[in-house]
Amino acid sequence: MFPKIVQVVPNEDYTVMIYFEDGKIVSYEVSHLLEKEVFKPLKDKDFFMNSCTIMNDTLAWDLTGDGDESKCIDIDPETLYALEEIGERTA
Length: 91
Prior knowledge:
Blueprint: E1 5-10, E2 15-20, E3 25-29, H1 45-51, E4 52-55, E5 58-62, E6 72-74, H2 77-81
Antiparallel strand pairs: 1-2, 2-3, 4-5, 5-6
């Protein structure tokens, strides 16, 4: 069992800052996935930024906007927690 994700913050450069309840912060790069069929909706930057959320206890994009956890693109939480920890990202 991995610590719970408590916040996700999408960035214009197709990265997402992910904050875990144990204080770990990671950055997940999404741009390399955009050519895969399942991730194509994320090419729309507005959709990428505005639908990024936590669903199924992990980083996800809500495809329908109604919170239906069966209709989202989500990332394996083990993959996210295995990323190298970074410090707080600042502008």
